[in-house]
């Protein structure tokens, strides 16, 4: 064949163009960005304003683009300098993955290791190292699998698998797993990119790529500028909150940690609230009110129901399913605007019994079977049962979980405590608790006593009353079980010799989320679906009424002390609700605060609600009168934001516990 014939043949064959490594990485990250944009669009937590939605998408796309450009640059360096040394390159990839994993992952995975260690000290570090190694090595393993799948048909399976992982990543690792989500997403992208690298482009795409080649440098420059802008320009507060919602964004948790908190100018404290914005360690005790509500030798029974949000009772919609709770609402004083002091049982009950908030208490690491983690075991603040016990009141509790006993400090001061060890669940259910309480109440004579029970039946995974139906339906069926337990207890009290001197207080530790703001269950936010709880006080000589005054469970300590005719320590941050039981309508002045996982909420009398997240550096502001569902944050308006933000900062600066070497810890 002549040279001319050879040249003619070459011209006749279409030039084969394949995807380079850097281009494959960039395309994989763009695929991830598109996948996450769809997740954002479908998210239940989407902000209502168009400008916030647009900025949410813009910053999110910029962050994914920044990751893609950074990865493409690293792969380009590998192609330029490391291709001839494949083993050394693989070893470097493994080393870098382990190094970044060791830097970022322990904070995310420590809690999981603690839970699985079951209090065994040597197991926790071993599990933590194992978890960190598994997540860290996910990227090198994904690269290997992608290269093995880099052939016709198989590569499309790998690409589809990577996109599926990207789609479910926000759901499977919702909450406090920012680093783990980043590693999972990176592994999915690595799988897609490795499978895509070397793929031959169809003729039309190859032709398009050829025509765009002269624009490659300008396009990369524009993309780099857009990516850099998304990283260095701080978004407005409402956009930061949207980016940190459960929608799959990867970088905001790390970028927000680099941004400074807003430092508002000091704002004047309303005069009636001034006593609560000074150090109260030397504040005088508050004497009990007069006349007393209960006869001599009071009997107070406090029931808290796990995960019972207020609208189960407030709406009346579920009265037929929850007849006992509905009857209690109509027979007692119903505080329909009550809030918990936290969205997790530990935070809420610790504040209820101590009369102070989480950041005022001293939390230390405790290793114990089924109760390892941070507990206020060494906190010195007084719990109200201690004061009752010192005053001659029998204090009795039956605990369904091991940390609701004196030792761990959430509750303290019970002269009688009984921990009922669980069977197949992590805690005991209501029936054995009520059985034990009924047996003990049968022994009561003329002495004053305080009884506390916390019922955990309605806690996730909502499987006690069947597993069919939605999460909400299963949860409701568990509350029906709880309603039956409460009925048995109330019937026994009514038949008892102490019925005339008894007061029943019923509340919840926190509510429960069912998709509101993109969240499920509890402990992950401070929105009102988690903070609004029922609070009912019923006694024979107390007239039923509905109270709209905003109250907090921190008011319960002073209230119960008042019912027993005991004074309240000046250090307590709540106020007695007994005047409402007398038919009065006082104006309460203490601030209403809630905390969880370094998030704080402040609710003011004008229905303003501020939520500050000091871990993620976010701030939200809501007008609960106009926006009770908390969907339209007003935090972008500094005129409205700064006064309540200044009050919050001043309150925290005044009351946060200060000890050498101690910083308020992040408790999961």
Helix content percent band: 40-55%
Write down the overall mean pLDDT.
88
Span of the ends, CA to CA? 76 Å
The largest sheet has its strands arranged as 7-6-8-1-9-13-2-14
Shape: elongated
Low-pLDDT segments, ≥5 res: 1-14
| SS element count, helices | 23
The class by helix and strand makeup works out as alpha/beta
**Which value, in Å, is the CA radius of gyration?**
30 Å
What percentage of the residues does DSSP assign to strands (E)? Answer: 5-15%
Let me know the number of strands.
19
The largest β sheet comes out as: 8 strands, mixed
Task: Give a structural overview.
With 668 residues, this protein is of the alpha/beta class. It is built from 23 helices and 19 strands. The strands form 5 sheets. It has an 8-stranded mixed beta sheet with strand order 7-6-8-1-9-13-2-14, with helices on both faces. Strands 16-17-18-19 form a 4-stranded antiparallel beta sheet. Residues 1-14 have low confidence and may be disordered.
């Amino acid at each position: 064949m002549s040279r001319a014939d050879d040249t003619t043949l070459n011209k006749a064959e279409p030039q084969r163009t394949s995807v380079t490594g850097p281009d494959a990485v960039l395309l994989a990250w763009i695929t991830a960005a598109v996948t996450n944009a769809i997740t954002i669009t479908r998210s239940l937590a989407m902000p209502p304003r168009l400008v916030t939605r647009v900025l949410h998408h813009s910053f999110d796309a910029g962050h994914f683009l920044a990751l893609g450009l950074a990865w493409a640059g690293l792969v380009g360096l590998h192609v330029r300098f490391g291709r001839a040394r494949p083993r050394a390159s693989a070893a470097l990839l493994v080393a870098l993955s382990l190094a970044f994993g060791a830097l970022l992952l322990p904070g995310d995975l420590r809690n999981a290791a603690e839970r699985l260690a079951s209090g065994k000290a040597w197991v926790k570090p071993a599990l933590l190292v194992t978890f960190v190694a598994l997540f860290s090595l996910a990227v090198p393993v994904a690269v290997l699998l992608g290269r093995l799948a880099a052939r016709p048909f198989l590569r499309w399976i790998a690409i589809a698998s990577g996109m599926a992982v990207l789609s479910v990543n926000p759901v499977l690792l919702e909450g406090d797993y920012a680093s783990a989500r980043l590693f999972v997403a990176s592994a999915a992208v690595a799988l897609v990119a490795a499978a895509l690298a070397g793929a031959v482009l169809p003729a039309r795409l190859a032709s398009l790529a050829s025509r765009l080649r002269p624009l490659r440098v300008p396009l990369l420059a524009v993309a780099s500028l857009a990516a850099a802008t998304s990283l260095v320009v701080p978004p407005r507060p409402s956009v930061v909150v949207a980016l940190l919602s459960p929608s799959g964004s990867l970088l905001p948790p790390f970028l927000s940690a680099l941004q400074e908190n807003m430092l508002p100018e000091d704002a004047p404290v309303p005069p009636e609230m001034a006593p609560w914005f000074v150090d109260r360690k030397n504040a005088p005790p508050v004497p009990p009110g007069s006349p007393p509500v209960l006869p001599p030798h009071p009997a107070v029974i406090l029931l808290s129901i796990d995960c019972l949000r207020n609208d189960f009772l407030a709406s009346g919609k579920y009265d037929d399913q929850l007849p006992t709770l509905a009857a209690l609402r109509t027979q007692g004083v119903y505080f329909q605007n009550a809030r918990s002091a936290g969205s997790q049982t530990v935070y809420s009950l610790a504040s209820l019994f101590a009369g102070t908030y989480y950041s005022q208490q001293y939390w230390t690491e405790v290793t114990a079977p089924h109760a390892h983690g941070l507990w206020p075991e060494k906190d010195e603040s007084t719990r109200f049962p201690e004061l009752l016990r010192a005053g001659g009141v029998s204090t009795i509790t039956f605990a369904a979980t091991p940390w609701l006993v004196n030792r761990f400090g959430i509750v303290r001061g019970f002269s009688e405590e009984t921990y009922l060890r669980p069977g197949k669940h992590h805690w005991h259910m209501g029936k054995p608790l009520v059985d034990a309480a009924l047996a003990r109440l049968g022994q009561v004579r003329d002495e004053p006593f305080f009884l506390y029970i916390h019922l955990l039946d309605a806690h996730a995974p909502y499987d006690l009353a069947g597993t069919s139906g939605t999460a909400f339906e299963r949860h409701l069926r568990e509350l029906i079980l709880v309603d039956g337990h409460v009925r048995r207890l109330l019937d026994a009290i009514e038949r008892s010799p102490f019925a005339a001197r008894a007061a029943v207080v019923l509340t919840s530790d926190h509510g429960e989320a069912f998709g509101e703001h993109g969240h499920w269950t509890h402990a992950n936010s401070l929105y009102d679906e988690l903070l609004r709880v029922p609070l009912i006080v019923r006694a024979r000589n107390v007239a039923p009424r509905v109270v709209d005054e905003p109250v907090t469970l921190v008011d319960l300590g002073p209230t119960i002390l008042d019912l027993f005719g005991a004074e309240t320590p000046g250090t307590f941050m709540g106020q007695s609700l007994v005047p409402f039981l007398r038919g009065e309508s006082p104006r309460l002045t203490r601030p209403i605060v809630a905390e969880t996982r370094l998030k704080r909420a402040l609710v003011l009398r004008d229905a303003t609600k501020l939520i500050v997240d000091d871990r993620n550096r976010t701030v939200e502001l809501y007008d609960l009168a106009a926006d009770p569902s908390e969907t339209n944050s007003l935090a972008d308006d500094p005129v409205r934001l700064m006064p309540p933000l200044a009050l919050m900062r001043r309150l925290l600066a005044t009351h946060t516990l200060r000890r050498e070497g101690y910083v308020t810890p992040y408790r999961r």
